Amino acid sequence: MFSNKEMFKQALVEKLKTNFGKKVETASEYDTYRALGALVKDEITKKWMETEERYQKDQTKQVYYFSMEFLMGRLLGNNLLNMNLLELVQDGLEDLGLSLDSLEENENDAGLGNGGLGRLAACFLDSLASLNLAGHGYGMRYRYGMFDQHIIDGKQVELPDEWLSKDFIWEVRRPEDAIEVKYEGYVDFKEDSSGNWKFEYVDYEKIRAVPYDVPIVGYNNETVNTLRLWSAEATTEDIMVRAKRKNEMGYFLNHRRALESVSEFLYPDDSTEEGRRLRLKQEYFLVSAGVQSIIQSFEKTGLPWSAFSDKTAIHINDTHPALVIPELMRILVDEKGLGWDQAWEITQSVVSYTNHTTLSEALESWPVNTVRTLLPRLFMIIEEINERFCQALWKTYPGDFDRIANLAIVADGQVKMAHLSIVGSHSINGVAKLHTEILKKREMKSFYETFPSKFNNKTNGITHRRWLMHANKPLSNLITEAIGDQWMNEPDRLKDLLKKKEDLSFLDRLDDVKQNNKIALADWVKETQGITVDPQSIFDVHIKRLHGYKRQLLNALHIMHLYNELKADPTLDMVPRTFFFGAKAASGYYFAKKVIQLINRIAAVINKDDEVNDKIKVVFLPNYSVSTAEKIIPASNVSEQISTASKEASGTGNMKFMMNGALTIGTMDGANVEIHDLVGDENIYTFGLSSEEVLEYYRTGGYSSKQVSDQDERLRHTLEQLIHYSPFSKGEMDFQPIYEALINHNDEYFVLKDFADYVMAQRKVSQDYQNKRLWNAKSLVNIAQSGHFSSDRTIQEYASQIWNIERVQMLK
Ligand code: 26V
């Protein structure tokens, strides 16, 4: 360990020389970044080995968090922070004329996720290690992560994310731990001498799953856990068997490409039959490689199968890895010779499941035929699980055909993954109180009635280490100055800040921190986008995936309305505001892409109009990602969390903003409800329909968007500007589909219904912002109450209530 600055400098100079043949003065920033990374990794590796040895020696119960997505972002800064090396390295680099911030820019984001679900998984890994819990991630090493978004002619253009074009310095390839995953073929079964059925899987195709391990460093402790990412590889030998038959090189190359495509893309296009099949293939790839490797490690302990569930917990992040249930059954029954009932009991007690959405279009189901042909043995097992489950239901609800058809795992020619997940696990949780209630009372009501004790809530969280200590060092330092540093280990202690609520000089300093962060963001926006923004204006930020229910459109219509007001009366006294957006739309999501185009059009119109652009500005930040979020959130005043109530399961961006002192303007949806409970009415701006009202409208109808628009001149005018000649439409029909969704299709997400209330809430925001002290006190209450949303709290709840694991005691 380099325990002082001089040793570190020397070590860095040495590393640059031995690894890259460079001197500090001549090395590129990229080389220096890699040398620094290598040094840090050396330090990490020692702890990593010791952690592994300790787990083995103590036979510690291990949790495996299976997720198709881990949105890790960059690791250098966080690893330095958690290793307690940040300041030493920063100082040392400065001596050498280098800046850590700019070295960090050399790391590509590991963008192996789409949005909230993937980032949650990444925050959870940080908390597991930081709490000394033996929990590891199992995921996919996609060759291309979340696409790179460019805005060309005001429209989204997607380019492949070639994140591996630079070395991913943290991973370790472990070919010795490779696993074979089998697909297609058919199942032979025969009775053995003792009358038991034996299954033999024949003529299958196999793909080699090679693990790449990434160390997950705990904060200021001795724990280093593992994120194991699986990559598909075809061995020459496998391919040659078939290539010889075909006798051609072209076949060899094509076949290899086909096999390796399993881990090529995150979330391949699921609008075509081919794309969907590949997605299922990916899911089974993660599941089978993961479960086989868990079984292999368990077998090394020499313990009997009856101890398996005492030593292992498997968590599935949404239903994507739900095949762990039949896969575990297959291995226990077919390969290890356990009876069905014992295997089933083990499986249920090992597996737990989190639901992340109630949107029906996002609930996974697979055509029976696809599952049967791709995974013939697994399909048989799923059918058996279904058969036994339906029989049990028949006993409890004799004659109730409707209920049984509703709950069945295989029905209407589909395999329903949520049903499989509930039946095959001992715990199912929602991700915020409201979401869990909606699951219990509506979406999964019949299941809740059947298995009430399986259902529970675990409100999401975010790691305060990345999102406060690392992303916002000035705020972190100010907090520590005020209340000491205990909050870093016990984030709930942030509450101690409440005593500063009336301390005017402290509030001024809080304001200074925010102001400096805003200046830094303004500089970055100028540099990267060429747009000048006023750091004195309110920074109003809406960053998240683009989706109808998240209602970026409501925000956009409000900005159009402000523009109209200013054009009607250019002398209007308006508190200056800069609206920031960041959002990626799924490549096949036409409507979402139209909204992106509209926002960019609004920005183009407003930013160049000198009559309005000293009052309002609009910035669309392309390629929103973890590393851009880290720059934007600390500089925000207003956090837009305006989903249609009942639709956003939790939201986690809302928590990051709160922790960085932004005030929320939001609906009573997801975790906003819990933010509201904690900060009180006067420290949040809520508006709009409640979730009950929304769900009632969906059930009984009675909403007419046309009527709402006809009765509100502001809305009517704004909507007309989408389809008639206006600065926004420029006389083209680009935004007709938006108009149609709102008026002809009756506004599925209640954008128009909530408009008036949103305008009022925004006015209140502007008013309050003018009273700086009042605003800063509100900001302080938000920071003080945000400790509850540390993922440490969430993970502690999972650990004690679902996984039944305890913190490992360690001597330093
Ligand atoms: C998936 C899809 C896929 C098909 C088309 C529409 C659609 C819409 C939504 C989704 C979401 C899938 C699951 C997910 O990412 N849920 C998010 O999980 C976060 C972590 O729990 C939570 O904070 C977000 O509210 C929730 O949307």
Automatic annotation (TrEMBL):
Q: Does the keyword Endoplasmic reticulum apply?
A: no
Enumerate the catalysed reactions: [(1->4)-alpha-D-glucosyl](n) + phosphate = [(1->4)-alpha-D-glucosyl](n-1) + alpha-D-glucose 1-phosphate
What keywords appear on the UniProt entry? Carbohydrate metabolism, Glycosyltransferase, Pyridoxal phosphate, Transferase
Major enzyme class: transferase
Give the Pfam families listed for this entry: Phosphorylase (PF00343)
**EC number(s) stated in the UniProt entry for this protein:** 2.4.1.1
Q: Which domain of life is it from?
A: Bacteria
Residues bearing N6-(pyridoxal phosphate)lysine are K656
The cross-references to NCBIfam families, in alphabetical order and at most eight, read: P_ylase (TIGR02093)
Q: Which family does it belong to?
A: Belongs to the glycogen phosphorylase family.
Say what the protein does.
Allosteric enzyme that catalyzes the rate-limiting step in glycogen catabolism, the phosphorolytic cleavage of glycogen to produce glucose-1-phosphate, and plays a central role in maintaining cellular and organismal glucose homeostasis.
Protein's name in the database: Alpha-1,4 glucan phosphorylase
